[in-house]
Amino acid sequence: MCQSSAVGKLLPNAFYVHLSALSYLEPEIQSYENLARLAAPPVKEATLVKISTTQAKVSYLFYPDFDTEPHPALQASIQVDLQSFQVSSRDYSASDNSPILHPKETFVAPDYPLYEQFAQLTRTEVALGVLEHPRSIGTRREWLQRLENHGVEFRGHHLIKRDVGGEGEQRLRGAGEQRRKQVNLFPPHLVTSAPGHLHNLQPATCN
User: Fold this and answer.
1) How far is CA 157 from CA 57, 151, 173, 204, in A?
2) Which end of the chain is more exposed for a tag (fewer CB within 10 A), N or C?
3) Rounded CA gap, 126 and 109, in Å?
4) Each residue of 75-103: pLDDT tens digit?
C-alpha cells in the first residue's frame, strides 16, 4: 500500500508522509499508524510519519522549520516498535550535521498551502543538478557542500547563484529562464514537475 500511495515519499526501507496528509492514505495504513500513536507520547507537533517497510516500526520526525526553511533539519525523533511497543527517542537539536529534507512537496498532498512553492523550488534544483545523487546529500554538511560546489545559496525558497564575473547575484526562478554563462536560467520545457502526485486526490476514510 505504501508502494502504491500517490501521497508520500517511498525510499527503499521506509515510507514518509506529512502528518497533514495521513487522511489521504489507505485506511489500513492509517489504522497501523494509529497503533503507534497509542503507544507514543503526544506527537501532534511532529512533522512527518516514517513507516518502516522492513520492520514493524513507526517513527515521528520533528522538523519545526518545515514550512519556512527550504531544506529543514531534523530536530528530534520518536520511534515505536510495534512488536514490543517500546518507545525510543533521539534529539538532534545540538547536532551540526542533522538529516535534512528534500524535496518537500513529496511529503504533502497537492492541496497543501505551500505545495506549489515547494515544487517550484524542486524544479529549479533539478534543472541546476543540485539534487543529483540524493544519497550523498542527506545531511546538512553534505548538502552545504553540494550548494558550494554549484555556487548557489538560498534566499527563502529561492536559489541565488553568484555571478563570478562581477555582475552581482541573479535569482533563479526555476521555470522561467535559460542557462547563460555563470548564471543558470531555464526555459519551461527543460523543467518538469516532481512525479508521483495526483492533483484530484480525496482523503481516504479510516473507520
Assistant:
1) 33, 16, 10, 31
2) C
3) 20
4) 999 999 999 999 999 999 999 999 999 99
Residue in this structure with the C-alpha cell 563570478, named with its chain if needed = 164
Report the alpha-carbon distance of residue 64 to residue 53 in Å, rounded: 25
The answer for 69, left when phi > 0, alpha when psi is -120 to 50, beta otherwise, is: beta
Name the residue with cell 524535496: 103
Q: How many helices (H) and strands (E) does the chain have?
A: 3, 9
Give the integer Cα–Cα distance in Å for 136 and 44: 31
pLDDT of 191 reads 32
Identify whether the C-beta of residue 106 lies closer than 8 Å to the C-beta of residue 18.
no
C-alpha cell at 72: 529543514
CA distance 167 to 5: 46
- 11: closest CA among 97, 101, 73? 101
Side chain identity, residue 87: V
